[in-house]
Amino acid sequence: MTGICWLLLAGLASAVFAEPMVHFREQFEDGDEWQTRWVESKHKSDYGKFRLTAGKFFGDEEKDKGLQTSEDAKFYAISSRFEPFTNEGQILVIQFTVKHEQNIDCGGGYIKLFPADLKQEEMHGDSTYFIMFGPDICGTGNKKVHVIFNYKDKNHLINKDIRCKDDEFTHLYTLIVHPNNTYEVKIDNAKVESGTLEEDWDFLPAKRILDPNATKPEDWDEREQIDDPDDRRPDDWEEIEHITDPDAKRPDDWDAEMDGEWEPPMIPNPKYKGIWKPRKIDNPNFKGEWVQPEIDNPEYVPDDKIYKYENIGVIGLDLWQVKSGTIFDNFLITNDEILAEEIANETWGVTTEAEKKMKELQEEEEKKKQDDKDEKSTAEDKVAVEEEEEEEVEADEEDDEEKEPDEDEDVEEEEEEELEETEKTESSPKDEL
């Protein structure tokens, strides 16, 4: 496309849409210079520290560098300032990447967008903000994407549940707010949720409410079925469950003064049929369940500027983490969702597959090391077992050698005894003579 054509298209686009503008962009590509742009809060003395790193695995060691939480069980508070602006009449796009390489168990991964009058060194959890957006994980049940808007000095949470990513890789989070009061949430450049601000948040009172003056008519019958008025209980219907035993007799030795008045025992009534109830029939006067009518809510006032914020000027990380290690990178605030997608493809999109490949290679190497270690350990155990068996064999042989002389002595004693017996036998006849 020639330069002239490009200018013509750009001019045409600007007549319809706001001129593309990047309000804030941070990729940490200049080493430690990031410390001149980001301010750590001093509201508390024990905030956790951030460090610049690409982590243990990455797609590109330089491009993937970001701010990483470095201390466990800490609050973190850091922010960066930019030229204040308003999003009135324009699209607002907030985008950044999050990498929980520590396999986070509980902690935030979201950003906050603050008014320009924020005192950065005093930023804390209760500091007023415009928008809070990003993943939050705590346990297995809470893995959501927060989308919180401040409206008339009150923070409103989205009424929908948006699931966040919970693996160890870098993921891209994008929030798009349109000037027609609609929104879109994207993860990894793919839409995961969208709708209207009025319907998905409780910014405004309900359009319709129940009519407080409406009451159910006295003749309104909600009974779908009624007892049949013509049904009659049979004359032989027995409702008595137990009766006195007609065959029971008072014992002859019963003493009324000593034992009290004798009463026959109770037995189950053989004619008992239960409590009689008339059969049910359809109610000819049934009108259904009465529903209280609705009326227009007199307190409802539409607002076509819910999306709008004035004096946006600071982006910050204000969060808590039990296990540190999360890396934040590729921050972007713009009024052009197409530009945001292009930048995402040029940054996160370029390195994401390489990052996964490096992690895979690391896991394969770790597995190989563990297998070698296990194999070596198995070999050592085998040698130890063989040595132990040899020692046992040697010990048995020594025991046998010690036992052999005793056995020889026993044999000799037996032979001597047999010889003596023989001599005695041979000499006996001579003695008699």
Please tell me about this protein's structure.
By secondary structure, the chain is α+β, with helices and mostly antiparallel strands. It contains 5 helices and 22 strands. The strands form 5 sheets. Strands 1, 3, 4, 6, 12, 13, 14 and 22 form an 8-stranded antiparallel β-sheet that branches. Strands 2, 5, 7, 8, 9, 10, 11 and 21 form an 8-stranded antiparallel β-sheet that branches. A hairpin with a 3-residue loop joins strand 9 (131-138) and strand 10. The chain is flat and about 115 Å long. Residues 212-241, 355-433 are annotated as: Disordered.
Features:
single chain; 433 residues; alpha+beta; disordered C terminus; calcium; signal
Would you kindly provide a brief summary of this structure?
With 433 residues, this protein is α+β, with helices and mostly antiparallel strands.
Topology:
Blueprint: H1 3-16, E1 22-26, E2 38-40, E3 50-53, E4 66-69, E5 74-85, E6 92-100, E7 106-108, E8 111-115, E9 131-138, E10 142-151, E11 154-157, E12 170-177, E13 182-187, E14 190-196, H2 197-200, E15 208-210, E16 225-227, E17 242-244, H3 256-259, E18 266-268, E19 280-282, E20 294-296, E21 312-321, E22 326-334, H4 337-346, H5 348-432
Antiparallel strand pairs: 1-22, 2-5, 3-4, 4-22, 5-21, 6-12, 6-22, 7-9, 8-9, 8-21, 9-10, 10-11, 12-13, 13-14, 15-20, 16-19, 17-18
